[in-house]
Amino acid sequence: MAQVPLVTDPSIEFADPFDKAEHTQAEVASQWKLMWWKFKRHKMAVVGGIVVLMFYLVALFAEFVAPVHFTSYNETYVYAPPQEIHLLQNGRFSPYVFGYRFERDPASFKKTWFIDESVIIPVGFFVSGEPYKLWGFIPGNWHLFGSKNPEEPFYLLGADKSGRDVFSRIVYSSRISLTVGLAGVTISLLLGILIGGISGLVGGAVDNAIQRLIEILISVPTLPLWLALAAVVPLDWTPVKVYFMITVILSLIGWTGLARVVRSKFLALREEDFILAAILDGVPRSRLIFRHMIPSFLSHIIASVTLAIPGMILGETALSFLGLGLREPVVSWGVMLRETQKVTVLATYPWLLWPAAAVIIVVLALNFLGDGLRDAADPYQ
Q: Of 31, 49, 147, 212, whose CB has the highest number of CB atoms within 10 Å?
C-alpha cells in the first residue's frame, strides 16, 4: 500500500517557504483549528459575528448603554424629531446637539418641530444621568453617552407618542428580542436532537411515525399556525408568562428542520466502525448518542442553530407587531413597530421605523455568520 508523502519528503517542492510552513501546520492542526482558519477567510461571516457580538453586548449592558430608561417620558417632546450630533465646536472636538422649538397649529393644535440652532446642548461619553440597577441589583448612574445636562432634551433617534427616547427603547428591546431567539433555539435544539436521534437510531415504525409528524408540521404555513397558537394566550397573563409562552410557541415549530438533519447524520453514523465497536462494547444508548455520535457533527448543529435564530427573532417580531405576542409594558422590537401600523403615523414620523432597521441588521448578520459557520463545518472541502 503506497504511503502518503509527508511534507518532509524532498520530492514535494514549494515555491514559497511560507506555503510549506502553512502546509505543515494544517497537517497537525485539530479539526476545530481548521474550522477557525476557514471561518476567518469568510470576511462577511467575520463581520456578521462582530455585529452579532456587539448587539448581544448592548443587550447585556442595556442600562449602561441607553441614555435613559425605556419607560422615561417627557410629554413636552412628543414625536420630537432626531437630533443630529455635531462633533466639532470652535475648531475642537466637543460633541453637541441643537435644541428644539415648536409651533402649534391653532386649528388642529398639532406641534410642528424645528431645530433651534441658538440652543446648544453639549453631549459626551460616560456621563452621569438617570440612576439604574444593572441586571437588577448593581446600582449606578453612569451612561455610555448622553446629554451632560440631564434636564435638557437628547433624542438621538427621536421620540415616540409619549415623549420616550426611541434609541433607549431599541436598546432595551434588544434584550427581549435577542433572548427570545436564544431561548427558542435552545428548546428547539433539545427537541431536534432528541426526536431526530430517536428517529435515526431506532428506525422502523418509530422512524416512519416521526417523519410523518414532521411532514405534517412542515406542510402547515408557519405564520397562520403561530397566530392560531398565540391567540390562545390569555390577555390577562403577566408579561413573564407571555414571554415564556411565545418562546414555547416558536420552539414547538422550529425543531423539525434540525430533527431531520440529526436523523440523516445518525443514519450515516450508525454504520460506521467506531459506532459498531461502541455498540459491541456495551456502551449505553444515551452515552452512544451524546458522547460518540453528536460530537461527530457538532459543527453542523452549531451552523444550523445560528441560522435558526433569525427565524425566531422574526417570529417574535411578527407576533408582537400583530398584537398577538408581547404587549406593553414589555418592550421589544415588534412591540415598538406596532406604532407604525398606521400609514399616517409612518409618513409623519418615519423615525419610528428604526426598530425595523435593528431587526434587519441582526437578521443579516446572523445569516452571514451562519453561512460562514456552515462552510467552516467541513474544513476539508
A: 147
Instruction: Give the up-direction half-sphere exposure of residue 288: CA atoms within 13 A in the CB hemisphere.
Output: 21
Domains of the chain: 74-161 (no CATH), 170-376 (1.10.3720.10)
Q: Is 290 helix (H, G, I), strand (E, B) or coil?
A: helix
Q: How far apart are CA 288 and CA 282, in angstroms?
A: 10
Contact 248, 237 (CB under 8 A): no
Cell of 342: 398606521
| Coil/strand/helix, residue 28 | helix
pLDDT of the chain along its 381 residues, tens only? 444 444 444 444 544 444 445 555 656 666 677 778 888 888 898 999 999 999 999 999 999 999 999 989 888 888 999 999 988 888 888 899 998 888 877 776 777 888 888 889 999 899 988 899 898 888 988 999 988 888 888 999 999 988 899 999 999 999 988 888 788 888 888 888 888 888 887 878 888 998 898 888 888 777 777 777 777 777 778 777 877 887 887 787 778 888 888 888 888 887 788 888 888 888 887 788 777 788 777 777 877 788 788 888 888 888 888 777 778 888 889 888 888 888 888 888 889 999 999 999 999 999 898 888 877 776 655
Residue 373 exposure: Cα atoms within 13 Å on the Cβ side? 20
Return the ∠ at Cα 116 (arms to 130 and 128), rounded to 5°.
15
Alpha-carbon gap, residue 191 to 196, rounded angstroms: 8
Place of cell 433539545: 190
Cβ neighbours for 239, distance < 8 A, ≥ 6 positions apart: 326, 327, 329, 330
CA atoms within 13 A on the CB side of 229: 19
Task: Enumerate the H helices of the chain as residue ranges.
Answer: 17-28, 31-40, 43-60, 62-65, 166-202, 204-219, 222-230, 239-254, 256-269, 273-280, 285-287, 298-321, 333-337, 343-348, 354-376
| Helix (H/G/I), strand (E/B), else coil: 181 | helix
Q: Using an 8 Å Cβ cutoff, are 355 and 331 in contact?
A: no
